[in-house]
């Protein structure tokens, strides 16, 4: 089978399941051949050898079953950094880059602010900030040792060393520590939300997605407990569901935060809310 025929076959196999069938086919064939996508159209008559064809057919079978491209490739780009991802970690999403952008707006350049990323997963948020604010002291926490192993590998692969990794269920292992910024993309999907049974989400760790009957259990816990872990005038930044911004704002108000702000993602959906702890001076 040559490249052109292989692409046509794969695109047809995926066409009724994924709206990105052609792109998925190109990405997976490129991976099977260990070539970039432009090679596929430069050499459409090149034949796949037996090993390449077997690998490609297996990729298409798995993608057809719904397994995300990122898990098949074992990697995902975020903030121009390359991240290892496995079924132990949430796949980094483009909208989470808005959370990083907001943190960078708040963190002055050339300062040694203390920043903690709660529920770091693959380390995407923590490493993105570490890459832009090399003098900051970044902590990345997750209750999953498997996720922390992946995050540590990602730090090594991206040559970032201004970051420490801590196994912690939210603030549990951070006793007596305080930070200028606490940032998190916590679980925020309601337990019975149909989203959990759709698309790529079906294959991601439920513990990184689901949070009680309203999806707000972990967000409430973080907002409540963060008051004990923020330095004067410190900031808490959270990603949340697009319909949760009013509830999140109310939680910030209830726990007496100031300067509460919600910002939209590129699709115009309310995606992040952040607020500042009141100064005790």
From TrEMBL:
Enzyme class (EC, first level): transferase
Keyword annotations: Methyltransferase, S-adenosyl-L-methionine, Transferase
Catalytic activity reported: L-glutaminyl-[peptide chain release factor] + S-adenosyl-L-methionine = N(5)-methyl-L-glutaminyl-[peptide chain release factor] + S-adenosyl-L-homocysteine + H(+)
A Pfam cross-reference name: MTS
Residue ranges occupied by any Release factor glutamine methyltransferase N-terminal domain in the UniProt entry: 6-74
Record keyword S-adenosyl-L-methionine present: yes
CDD domains: AdoMet_MTases
Record InterPro entries: DNA_methylase_N6_adenine_CS, HemK-like, N5-glutamine_MTase, PrmC_N, RF_methyltr_PrmC, SAM-dependent_MTases_sf, Small_mtfrase_dom
Record-linked SUPFAM superfamilies: S-adenosyl-L-methionine-dependent methyltransferases
Secretion signal span: none
Molecular function terms from GO: nucleic acid binding; peptide chain release factor N(5)-glutamine methyltransferase activity
NCBIfam families named in the record: hemK_fam (TIGR00536), RF_mod_PrmC (TIGR03534)
Protein name, entry field: peptide chain release factor N(5)-glutamine methyltransferase
Organism: hydrothermal vent metagenome
């Amino acid at each position: 089978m040559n490249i052109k025929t292989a692409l046509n076959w794969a695109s047809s196999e995926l066409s009724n399941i994924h709206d990105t069938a052609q792109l998925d086919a190109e990405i997976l064939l490129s991976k099977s051949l260990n070539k970039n996508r432009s090679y596929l159209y430069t050499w459409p008559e090149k034949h796949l050898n037996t090993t390449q064809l077997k690998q490609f057919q297996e990729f298409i079978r798995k993608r057809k079953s719904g397994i995300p491209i990122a898990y098949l490739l074992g990697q995902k780009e975020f903030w121009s950094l390359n991240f290892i991802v496995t079924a132990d970690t949430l796949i980094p999403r483009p909208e989470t880059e808005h959370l990083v952008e907001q943190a960078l707006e708040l963190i002055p350049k050339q300062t040694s602010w203390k920043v903690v990323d709660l529920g770091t997963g693959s380390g995407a948020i923590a490493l993105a900030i570490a890459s832009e604010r090399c003098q900051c002291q970044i902590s990345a926490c997750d209750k999953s040792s498997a996720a922390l192993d992946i995050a540590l590998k990602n730090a090594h692969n991206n040559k970032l060393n201004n970051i420490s990794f801590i196994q912690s269920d939210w603030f549990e292992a951070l006793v007596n520590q305080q930070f200028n910024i606490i940032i998190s993309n916590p679980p925020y999907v309601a337990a019975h939300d149909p989203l959990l049974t759709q698309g790529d989400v079906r294959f991601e760790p439920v513990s990184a997605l689901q949070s009680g009957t309203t999806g707000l259990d972990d967000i409430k816990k973080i907002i409540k407990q963060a008051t004990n872990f923020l330095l004067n005038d410190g900031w808490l930044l959270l990603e949340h569901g697009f319909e949760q911004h009013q509830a999140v704002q109310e939680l910030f108000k209830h726990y007496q935060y100031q300067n509460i702000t919600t910002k939209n993602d590129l699709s115009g959906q309310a995606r992040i809310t952040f607020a500042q702890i009141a100064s005790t001076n």
